[in-house]
Amino acid sequence: MAAGEKNMNEIIKEVYNGSIVSVKKIIPIDPEVGAPKIIEPPLKVQFGVMIGYTGSVKGELVLQSTDAFFSSVGEKMFGMPVEGEMLDSFAGELGNMIAGSLSMHLSEQGLTTDITHPTILKGDATLSGFKRALLVEVTYPENQSLSIYLLLNN
């Protein structure tokens, strides 16, 4: 089936599945993945990273958690704590790796995508203007969690 023939439900399913595969592949901690939930705008983010998608899929991937979670992932990946400006840089790069992996997954499903550079979200960021939004909660040991938001504009 060509990309143009896929309906929106199939695209959402592929974006969801690809997001889970990508998070499991990139973050070296065994997660427990919750069921997807539809959310209404606006989306409030205290700390996270946002990466845009263009092509067959138009929207944003937002990864939200605490700075402590991103720091612990960095420590797990690199063997040393990630803090300060380095933490922002790491969060952006982690988002890039997950978004790039998702883009590759979508390509394998016949969906053409490009990703934008990461945007770090800190403080009291409020996101709105998206048509559909899916939330997937991923939990990790020691009561840590990552919220994956799939904001779709097509």
Automatic annotation (TrEMBL):
Gene3D superfamilies on file: CheC-like
CDD domains tied to this protein: CheX (cd17906)
Any one of the GO BP annotations: chemotaxis
UniProt keyword terms in alphabetical order: Chemotaxis
Segments forming domain Chemotaxis phosphatase CheX-like: 48-125
Name used for this protein in its record: CheY-P phosphatase CheX
Native organism: Halolactibacillus halophilus
Lineage per the UniProt record: Bacteria, Bacillati, Bacillota, Bacilli, Bacillales
